[in-house]
Amino acid sequence: MTSRTVSMVVRAPPERVFQGWLEAGERFPKLYPEKFLTYKVVEQNGNERTTYCEEKWAGRRLAYTTKQRLFPPDRVEGEIIEGAGKGSLETWTFQRAAEGTRVQFHIRLRGLEGFVLGVLMRRRFDRELDQMSERWKAAIEAAA
Predict the structure, then answer these.
(1) Which CATH superfamily is domain 2-143 in?
(2) Are 104 and 18 in contact (CB under 8 A)?
(3) For 41-83, how does the pLDDT look when each residue is reduced to its tens digit (9 = 90+)?
């Protein structure tokens, strides 16, 4: 298993950042056309939702379904339940900070995809994740 954490401060209140996070998913193919091919919420039931995503990381095309538990405006927990990286876990936290919101994204990659991205292609994966995080931050701040 490979893990990676990204932290940033977004200049907006936690409620707005959390809402922006919720809404950003379905805009991912437009925000990141080189990365996200498809992203959609396939089911929403209270504070749980299921998403389907097709994306490209380090030159590899991945398709997977994630079950997410939402704890607004503080946290999101997700697990890939089907497809590439099945069993991988992600956690997003949104904490109030003097400058806005401290956002932390932690992912634990499992399976063949986790090994390939997290070990064999680690530098490229890290670079792409950092670039995507900066673009996401800029989009949330622009909308706030």
Answers:
(1) START domain (3.30.530.20)
(2) no
(3) 999 999 999 999 998 876 778 899 999 999 999 999 999 999 9
Q: Using DSSP bridges, classify how beta strands 89-97 and 100-109 pair: parallel, antiparallel or unpaired.
A: antiparallel
Q: Where are the domains of the chain?
A: 2-143
Please tell me the distance from the alpha carbon of residue 58 to that of residue 72, in angstroms, as a whole number: 32
Strand partners, 5: 106
- Kindly tell me if the per-residue pLDDT of 32 is higher than 90: no
Evaluate whether 14 touches 95 at the Cβ level (below 8 Å): yes
Distance between CA atoms of residues 133 and 8, nearest Å: 8
Give the β-pairing of 89-97 and 48-57. Answer: unpaired
